[in-house]
Design goal:
The protein is an alpha/beta fold. It has helices at about 5-10, 15-30, 35-40, 50-65, 70-80, 90-100, 105-130, 140-155, 175-180, 210-225, 245-255, 275-290, 300, 310-330, 355-360, 405-420, 430-435, 440-455, and strands spanning about 190, 195, 200-205, 235-240, 265-270, 290-295, 330-335, 360-365, 375-380, 390-395, 400-405, 455-460, 470, 505-510, 515-520. The protein has four domains: about 5-155, DNAb Helicase, Chain A, CATH 1.10.860; about 190-405, Rossmann fold, CATH 3.40.50; about 410-470, Arc Repressor Mutant, subunit A, CATH 1.10.10.10; about 480-520, no CATH class. The termini are far apart.
């Protein structure tokens, strides 16, 4: 290693102790600014260990609802046996006088954040330098370093909706020509068409509609990188905040859907204090474990609102989750309930209208009208053109089958109903539509499909006085495709008709209707 390189390694890591002191001094001036600070940094972002201890004590006082002043902070640190190690009451008194105003606290916190990120970059490079001499092939090391650095870069470039993070205050408008000359940005999805990275999304359904079943199957698919709803997923780690479920139920669902021991799934079961310190811990966990999906199940048990219809309270509670999604580039999915009264275009979402306004994507799971089966309709309302407006799905075993759009599924059902209504006796389209209880338009489309398949015959000229008539093709009837072959001795092992004990179906057509009779080889 050259002397200049060694000199760099001996240098003090990036830090700004004055900015750290200014942040803590601002808390003495205006204790409420601690919420603004926590949007950017936590205690671990401070370089000096004594500053980390002081800030943690401030957070504890804040969470307990205790006023933060020189006396309460000194007592808190003394109870931890940390007062002397941070410099004593004299050092705390100096902090009180250090910052005359809290007006620029966001700028000070931004500087602390920036220095912390630089230290993380330095640590990554040091680790890479040490591993250069021990690891082979180099592609693995290079890939890991590039991925880690890209993650840091993403954290640094994403701005909170409430403002900048530190020094990102440049006013740099871009012209139309400049925008058009930029490379088109492809939206990265963790579930194609439904969940882009870095978004806040809602999954809304009425009680006992199956939203938990849907979301836990999604969780396992994301963790294993397998398709969900016939759509690609990005494999990655998932964090579940199961604030209303019993641990037994969580385990049972995840086991049912095939969770393996090696799957990167992390579960917190039980209440979460959705205050600043807890949210900062969640954010750090997301970054450290490279979480790509966070599921909050459910929002109504997670947030701390007195009146969920109060938009100001909703904004206060949900905005930090939106910040986490933006700043970590993680998809945050909130499982939520539908109003009893229902509604269209987002009005069915329980709570204030601000909730729908804050999220990027709202996904609705609804029962099909008049059906009590496992079929559901999945609807989306959001900012992304790639998202399917509506999709009919069905839970079959432990997975979901996609049956198509409501129109496509309606056409499939129409074909089945029309075919069941057809007999050997020719009928016109109106009669068939009445028998099948399907609209005439769908009936005619279904008849064309069946004709193309060769399953029906059509006679007539299709004009007034000589309408098209339809009937089953020769040898076709509504049960034939389900029956066993009859009369072909070569189909059976003993070469003498039906095998011993085998049941066949005798089919007879009387007046266009099918009668069935079970027969055995003794009849």
């Amino acid at each position: 290693m050259s002397e200049p390189q060694a000199e760099h390694l001996r240098m003090v890591p990036p830090q700004n102790l004055e900015a750290e002191s200014a942040v803590m001094g601002a808390v003495f001036v205006d204790p409420d600014c601690i919420n603004e600070i926590l949007r950017l940094i936590g205690a671990d972002e401070f370089y000096r260990e004594s500053h980390r201890k002081i800030f943690r004590a401030m957070l504890d006082l804040h969470e307990a609802g205790t006023a933060i002043d020189l006396i309460t902070l000194s007592e808190s640190l003394k109870s931890r046996n940390e007062l002397e190690s941070v410099g004593g009451s004299a050092y705390l008194a100096a902090l009180v006088d250090f910052t005359p105003s809290a007006a620029n606290v966001r700028h000070y916190a931004g500087i602390v954040k920036e220095k912390s990120q630089l230290r993380r970059i330095l640590n990554l490079l040091k680790q890479g330098l040490e591993r250069v001499y021990t690891e082979n092939p180099p592609s693995n090391l290079a890939s890991e370093l590039m991925s880690a650095l890209a993650e840091l870069n993403r954290e640094n470039s994403l701005l909170s909706p409430k403002g900048d993070i530190g020094k990102a205050t440049h006013f740099e408008p871009v012209s139309a020509a400049g925008l058009l000359n930029r490379q088109t940005i492809t939206i990265p999805y963790i579930l194609d068409g439904y969940l882009p990275k870095g978004v806040l999304a809602l999954l809304i359904a009425y009680m006992k509609t199956g939203k938990s079943t849907l979301v836990y199957r999604l969780i396992v698919c994301i963790a294993q990188g397998i398709e969900f709803l016939s759509r690609k997923t990005e494999q990655g780690a998932v964090l579940i905040l199961a604030v209303e479920k019993h641990q037994r139920d969580i385990e049972r669902r995840l086991r049912r859907f095939g969770m393996a021991e090696t799957d990167p799934i992390y579960v917190h079961v039980g209440p979460v204090n959705a205050k600043a310190e807890a949210l900062a811990a969640i954010k750090n966990f997301i970054i450290e474990n490279k979480i790509i999906l966070v599921v909050v199940d459910s929002l109504s048990r997670f947030w701390n609102v007195q009146d969920e219809n109060n938009n100001m309270e909703v904004i206060r509670e949900v905005s930090p989750l939106l910040d986490i999604a933006r700043e970590t580039n993680t998809s945050v999915l909130l499982v939520h309930h539908e109003r009893k009264s229902g509604g269209e275009d987002g009005r069915s979402i329980r709570g204030g209208s601000a909730l729908f306004g804050l999220v990027d994507q709202a996904i609705f799971l609804e029962r099909r009208p008049g059906e009590a089966s496992n079929k559901r309709v999945l609807k989306t309302l959001g900012r992304y053109e790639d998202s399917p407006a509506e999709l009919v799905i069905e839970l079959v075993g432990d997975d979901y089958d996609v049956l198509g759009t409501p129109q496509e599924f309606g056409e499939i059902q129409a074909v089945e109903k029309v075919r069941a209504a057809l007999t050997a006796e020719p009928m016109d389209a109106k009669t068939i539509a009445k028998e099948a209880e399907v609209t005439e338009k769908l009936t005619r489309k279904a008849l064309e499909t069946l004709k193309d398949r060769g399953e029906i015959n059509r006679t007539g000229a299709g004009k007034k006085g000589d309408a098209y008539l339809y009937c089953l093709s020769d040898g076709q009837n509504s049960l034939l495709s389900q029956s066993l072959p009859i009369g072909k001795e070569t189909n059976y092992p003993n070469g003498k008709g039906h095998a011993s004990g085998m049941v066949g179906v005798a089919l007879n057509v009387f007046g266009g209707r099918v009668q069935t009779k079970e027969i055995t080889n003794g009849e």
